[in-house]
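Section 5.1 Outputs to date
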Amino acid sequence: MANADHRQTAHIISHTHWDREWYLPYEKHHVRLIALMDTLLDTLENDEEYRSFYLDGQTIIIEDYLQVRPDQRERLEKWIREGRIHIGPWYVLQDAFLTSSEANVRNLQIGHQDAAHYGTIAKVGYFPDTFGNIGQAPQLMKQAGIDNAVFGRGVKPTGFNNMVSDSAYESSFSELVWEGPDGSQVLGILFANWYSNGNEVPVDEAEAKEYWDRKLADAGKYASTGQLLFMNGCDHQPIQTDLAEAIRVARKLYPDTDFVHSNFPDYLASLKSSLEDKQLSVVRGELRSQRTDGWSTLVNTASARVYLKQMNQTGQMILEKVAEPLAAFAHVTGQAKYPHHLLKYAWKTLMQNHPHDSICGCSVDEVHREMVTRFDKSRHVAETIVDDSKQAVAGAVDTSVFASYGQDALPLVAFNTTGWTRSGVLEVELDVARVYFREGIAPNDMIRMMKEISLEGRTLVDADGNAIQHTFEDLGLQFGYDLPDDKFRQPYWTRRVKLTFEAAAVPALGLKTYAWVLGAASGASSPSLVSGPRTLANDSLSIEIAEDGTLAVTDMASGRTYRDLLIYENVGDIGNEYMFKQPDGETALTTKGLAAEIRVIEDNAYRAAFEIVHHWSIPASADELFEQEKQEAVYYPERKSGRSTTFVPFTIRTVVSLERSGRGVGIRTTFNNQAKDHRVRALFPTDLIASVHRADAIFEVAVRDNEPAAEWENPSNAQHQQAFADVSDGMQGLTIANFGLNEYEVLRDGRNTIAVTLLRSVSELGDWGVFPTPEAQCLGEHTVDLLILPHGGDGAVSGAYASAYQFQAPWTSAQTGVHGGTLSPVHSFLAWEGEGIAFSSAKIAEATGDLMLRWFNMRPEAAKLQALPNVSGSSAAYASDVLEQEGERLKPSDESASGSFAAELGPCEIYTVGIAAAK
């Protein structure tokens, strides 16, 4: 036992780990929550010795309870304000790896805002059951004023008096120092005996003696001091109403131990006081169970129900990379008020899908059906904010110049809401003319008028009058309507077209204006990007498609060719929603050598594309033994099932595209899955010599070993990713960007192949029981998107990572009229530069109305940021943090440029700046 010569204290902290939805649908868990909370309030009222309760670190529990029990608000608030119920700091207990960087911050911000309404916020970095822990958690916690992290996974404790830990992912004790890649350090508390090690404390003396003999020894084995932590609760655990009596019994049995009904503030204060002379292990960076056998990491939740991850990525990106910046632009130009209330509602609705058992896809089918509806609801709100904001900003753009370039100009504004200058292909719908029902024209005449409109003789021009090569598609007669703020709905008929063109060099966080005009001169045509029967080329890349559909991609700058890219792989999966398990001895099926149908499907000035079709067949399912093993809950690594000898068609349609200014090869893959119990991946051999690789994580380009630790036994070494995975030898590199495909692996195949999981079909939840989940087989149509990005040795400096981040964000456009305005036709709201720095977000702070801008340093070395906001009426810039608190004023980077500022970003630093609004 640790510190046997000193008196010890047993801190018993009551809690319930509340998985909002998991092995029961949300509402069934919800009903149980109401009962639990009713009991908690009664217990606090009737038992003064029941001192406090920790509400699982997530404020959404309060919302869920008061939704059904609004009559209990006053009682609940009383116990929170008196410090007997501790709330915050999160809105939900999210899976941090599968939610975006900004989603993690919004979760922290909204959790703090909601808790502040009740007058108190628990400053506990609470990660009890996160499926691995992100490397930047210490920095996020420190910026939020939290000096600790309490977590359950990712570090292996070696035990007191055992060999001193010699690994970055081992700790001698359950107490440790956790250090982020920027150097931020927090006191780490590992639930070495899980967050239920003080659950259901017995009242009977004999049972209590047996219980505490075991529990005190278990905690003492790993504790560095005599301050022992016992978590009195577990998943959906009801309140222990006789805990006070159980503690009295424990005190009687163990007079040398102080048993207290504690809370995190008291426990942490006592622990810190006792640690003054202790040397703790320092663990650094991501905690992903690196020093384990690899079988229980839960990493394959990153590929369970891929459709959820894709919907989540769409929802996150439209909020943080489109709606927030566009609404901020509209706000700072004085065109519209920033819709804090709508954005918070959209974020909350989206984050209700972010708990670890929800976004991980590891719940029963009913849970995930409801998630789809929440994704839609959040997206619909975000799309409405985008529509209103883009029209407001477009209305402030001076488009009068287009009247001089031809007749009947139809201006449109292309918005680049990413942090870097951007070129790319847009598809924009324009109304050539409208006739409103209110005009009193006979319905047949209205329709005739629209159909008779000529579309000939029009050219797309930019603000300098240059003709832009484009194509247009006549969408014909369309019905539409306006919803004015001051009138009844206004229906109309319109003649609509779709223009497709390349918008070149649209400024970062800015816009560029075009117009489709009648009578302007056409420009010269560009040469085709189709350079041969199965080849594409632009100034940056050359692509050759082999007969089996694999790609040879040449980086024109270096001359390096990457071969055999885009092999599809299929293997069986007899695991579950949590973990992948390939049948023993199975040989993977691949499309290497499988002849494909290849044809050109697009050949325009701005983009060209080939279609590749593989007519493949794969086993229909696992074999008959699998059903027996599932029913008997055989531990998945020990299963002996194989694959069926019956095959089903699996046709893969791939579109390989190249844009004229593109630096990457676009891949869109579509297939109709009718097979069960299997996994599909896309393989990209890099043939680069490297022992490590890089992957986009949370505010970090994480560096990870290609080879796992010696303890690793799992044949698979899958990892989490956000926007991309990258292998580089220091001279050249290959980045594979994705959209909503959160699992990859760098194979130990001698080629450092990047394998991206496209689909995983499984049939059970797994974990602690037998829970069939037939919808997790993901039958039906699927479409996935990837981008191949060859680059110079450093993807952060070469621009490959910036391109991967831009791949996440959609283009936005708005049709407007010919009018004057305060914004020029080509406008940027923020100019900035900084080598190796990534832009993350632009929004308006609710408390101050200030413009908040965030970057992060992608590299472990200092970098200089220089920026010039183009925001009228703003005052000085100041350093801030993830909670948007005002810090020190920043010095101008250029005394002659009003509003400019410069800052030195430390290694891997997350850096937030506030631009003070005019008061």
